[in-house]
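Dear colleague,

Following up on Tuesday's group meeting, I ran the structure prediction for the two-component complex that the binding team flagged. I've pasted the input sequences exactly as they went in, so you can double-check that nothing got truncated or mislabelled along the way. The structure tokens for the whole assembly follow below. Feel free to forward this to whoever is handling the docking comparison.

Inputs:
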Amino acid sequence: MNAPAYNFAYLDEQTKRMIRRAILKAIAIPGYQVPFASREMPMPYGWGTGGVQVTAAILGPQDVLKVIDQGSDDTTNAISIRKFFAKTAGVATTTATDEATVIQTRHRIPETALRANQVLVYQVPIPEPLRFLEPRETETRRMHALAEYGLMHVKLYEDIARFGHIATAYAYPVKVNARYVMDPSPTPKFDNPKMDNCPALQLFGAGREKRIYAIPPYTQVVSLDFEDHPFEPYRFNAPCALCGAENSYLDEIVTDDKGGRMFVCSDTDYCEGRQAAGHHGSLSAAPYKEKAQEASNG
Amino acid sequence: MTTIAELPPGFADKVLSAQSTFRSVMDAMARPGSVQRIVPMAGAPGMMMRGTAAIALTLFDHDTPLWLDARMSESSDVTKWLKFHTGAPVVQDSSIASFALISDGGALPSLERFALGTGEYPDRSTTVIIQVDSLSSGRGFELRGPGIDGVATLQASIKPFDLFERLRMNEALFPRGIDVVLVADDAVVAIPRTTRVVSKGS
């Protein structure tokens, strides 16, 4: 049902124009955070109000929308945003990465390689990578203007001094097009290499902090590191317990109070696709489903 | 003297037409050198091309000071149409304009006269929209930069002839700079400040 009281995709046209202009400047200056007049949305800050506004500004009736939250299509946040746009824009939705033209994401990049006709919209909580090093916006602006990023390297170096390796595991800072240091949003650093030279356009929206930034397609994105401590993506050393994938990002799931745990793909669509294609892991869901069926039949 | 009733119309469907036009411009900006088509059509006044008119209806409003070149600003059809449909204030000082509309590329003023942004706010720069003869035939250009997989080629017939030489200032200015949108009828090509263009001759 379409609620006639709202404009297409919820936002009014003047707001969309303002966001669209910000998106164009963001694309023209890769990695630079464009301020925009973020609106209140019918969901709390921290639930993806920035991503929702960006999605609302680009979405058209011919689009197919996928929303993921930590890789999963079926968490509350993902479902509510998907329903929000199904209701306010009447767009088709999907959980399949292949079929989507617009993918809004909270903290993951899908495992399936993205294509040129797709747009990836990130929900960003704190867009400023230097914020925890320098709280003043006037100062971080100047640091970006002068490309003065020594402080970020000091931070990574302090990791090495303290832990022996770069201990930053998510929101790992990247340099875009050899100019701006950018926060990739709290994605695991496992996903950082996927941002580099990606065929899809990547847009980032931070609602509370009122910033939009972008990585155009086929743009160099380098994770900051040191010659003797090169960037390394992190992954649990285990196959997925459901689909057996050896190269996907894994979630750790605690299964009991005796230290039992299992590792499963964070990207549910990828995992389901592999299981449908016949891949099985050590704890494949199939036996349980069959057991449940037998129990209900018998 | 044109009355408001005689002005060419805006979009028939404001919401979806603006969305479709924006996606074409966004794709153009994200993939410099690629020719994107603007599908929804609105009436276009005077010497304004229909692609330009659609972009104006999509992106201009009271928040976007507008600078018009001499031919555009002398046409009361154009200024009235823009005022009625977008409400964008037309300014004489090009250095405070969000957008500039150029119908006669031969008379394009020096690009330094537009807003280039500041080091802290490079987004506060003018987007220059230039109407050109053709984006499908003419001289060949090689483009490189973000948004381009290796090299993109563009065949275009553009005035001023030295536009891309002039845009080289973007290289030294970055992150400040000028973003250019080229329009030929319903075709759009964007040249953001990150794009480096090499002329291949004729």
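Chain A is about 30% helix and 15% strand.

Cheers,
M.
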